[in-house]
Amino acid sequence: MPRWKPDARQRLVVAALSLFAEQGYDDTTVAQIAERAGLTRSTFHRHFTDKREILSAGQKTLSRLLVEGIADAPADATPIAAVAAGLERASGEMTSFNRELSPLLHAAIEANEELQERNALKSMGMAAAMVGALKQRDVPEATAQVAAELGVLAFKLGFTRWADPARDDAPGELATLTLAALEELLAAAQGLD
To answer: Are 86 and 69 in contact, with CB atoms under 8 Å apart?
Structure first.
């Protein structure tokens, strides 16, 4: 078996999610993932500490992109406009690879309680990153929390729509769908009076 092949990290993610969908998360081993990817266990461990980490692959990058977008928003941007800038930056970096993995990722998470908890933590991490970036813009804590949570919901809704294989217009630009979801959520929030 060759010691190095290009795109090892992506191949490991695809292999893991495929195996999780086929035989379940609990019954999948690191050795099986590495074998399915055509790599060694040591290569797996160069990219991930364990199989749980595969499901949070990209979370740090996503949070960084959200923070960068918020930080780069115009100085006079409202908190929600700054969140929109973060969503646009992060969404713009998603590729067809992310879209194609979505059904496998969704199936793995839905089938395992531990993975559901990890997914919830991922959402909390995204929100915390946005809250921190908004507070750097002197946005009050409560306002930052609400704006960030709306941002997380908008990202999830936009991503779900983007990743839906039944949509004829997909793979529409994720940023467009995410920003539209944010507008929908803002309109819904105004109706709560």
So the answer is: yes
| DSSP 8-class letter at 167 | -
Instruction: Give the tokens for residue 159.
Output: 């991503």
- C-alpha to C-alpha distances, 161 to 60, 138, 181, 191, nearest whole angstrom: 23, 33, 9, 23
Cα 38 versus chain centre, distance:
26
**Local mean pLDDT, 10-residue blocks, the chain (193 residues):** 64 90 89 95 93 81 94 97 97 84 83 83 92 98 97 94 75 84 94 81
SS3 38: coil
With b meaning 16 or more CB within 10 Å and e meaning fewer, what string describes 39-55? bbeebbeebbeebeebb
Beta-carbon-side half-sphere exposure of residue 53 (alpha carbons within 13 Å): 12
Give the C-alpha separation, 140 to 75, whole Å. Answer: 15
The one-letter code for the residue type at 79 is P
Angle at which helix 113-136 crosses helix 59-72, to 10 degrees, equals 20
CB atoms within 10 A of CB 150: 23
Q: At residue 48, what is the residue type?
A: F
Nearest to 91 by CA among 185, 172, 193: 172
**Encoded tokens for 125:** 């991490």
Q: How far apart are CA 173 and CA 153, in angstroms?
A: 17
pLDDT confidence of residue 104: 84
